[in-house]
Amino acid sequence: MNASAFVRALAAVQLEDVFNPYADTCGLFDRADAASTRRSNLRSYLRSVEGQGADTLWMGRDLGYRGGRRTGLALTDEYHLAEVPSLYAGTVVARATNGNAVAERTAAEIWAALRLVRGRPLLWNVFPLHPHEHGSELTNRRFSSRELEEVDGLNADLISWLRIRRIVCIGQDAERYAKRYCDAVTVVRHPSYGGTSDFRRGIAEAYGVPRREVAPEDRQRTMFDPGLAPKTRKSA
Question: Which residue of 121, 131, 141, 231 is 20 to 30 Å from 208, comparing CA positions?
Fold first, then answer.
């Protein structure tokens, strides 16, 4: 297995009510070459992870319409796309969409954490595509068991190829899945739906990083740094 073969196999997955950012084009926001750009982003990112010898995976549930659907990278929105090469050496990435960059709260929390922890984990999802409600692409929904079966083999190949030994699960959906592949599983609460403080605490404890208090009235502050996270812009 290598990055090119993996991305090619992932791009071949086609499911109803699932947007495959490595093969599909969004008629509202994508540039003409968006799918090709996202394939390139992912190939470059995976090569960097392989080169750095990362043995830890941070696993979310699936791609969101404000994040990975647009960038092709798990747990990464357009506001943090330019930051990828600084943490994952050698990665070459580009935007695949038109209009203003779109921010995602989960991605902001993930990238605030990445700046402080030791090592550079692989960012991935249980379901590495974007499942949406029927007839409404700019929505998020949980993937079905049948849909998961279609990508399970690819996940197994990825974990084996990159020699992942530890999985940090972002939420309980990831926890239930990760245990089939790895004995060293750590679970932290997903930062959405009121879980921000628990997520910050969980990552800090998992990596032994002192967690600074965050003013509850300022929800844009990052979890360890007193500086502010990027402000969210409305989507076009």
Answer: 231
Phi-psi sector, 90: left (phi>0), alpha (psi -120 to 50), beta: left
pLDDT tens profile 26-67: 999 999 999 999 999 999 999 999 999 999 999 999 999 999
- What is the DSSP secondary structure assignment for residue 91, as one 8-state letter? -
**DSSP string covering the chain:** --HHHHHHHHHT---TTEE-TTT---TTTB-TTHHHHHHHHHHHHHHHHHHHT--EEEEEEE--TTTHHHHSSTT--TTTGGGHHHHSTT------B-SS----HHHHHHHHHHTTSSS-PEEEEEE-SEE-BTTBSS---PPPHHHHHHHHHHHHHHHHHTT--EEEEESHHHHHHHTTT-SEEEEE--STTTTHHHHHHHHHHHHTPPPPP--TT-TTB-SS-SSBPPPPPPP-
Convert the pLDDT of each residue in 163-183 to its tens digit: 999 999 998 889 889 988 888
Residue holding tokens 């090469």? 85
Domains, the chain, ordered by start:
3-207 (3.40.470.10)
Both tokens of residue 202? Answer: 């969980």
Q: Which two tokens stand for residue 203?
A: 């990552």
Contacts with 229 (C-beta within 8 Å, 6 or more apart), sequence order: 108, 112, 220, 221, 222
Q: What is the pTM of this model?
A: 0.88
- Return left, alpha or beta for 129; rule: phi > 0 is left, psi -120 to 50 is alpha, else beta: beta
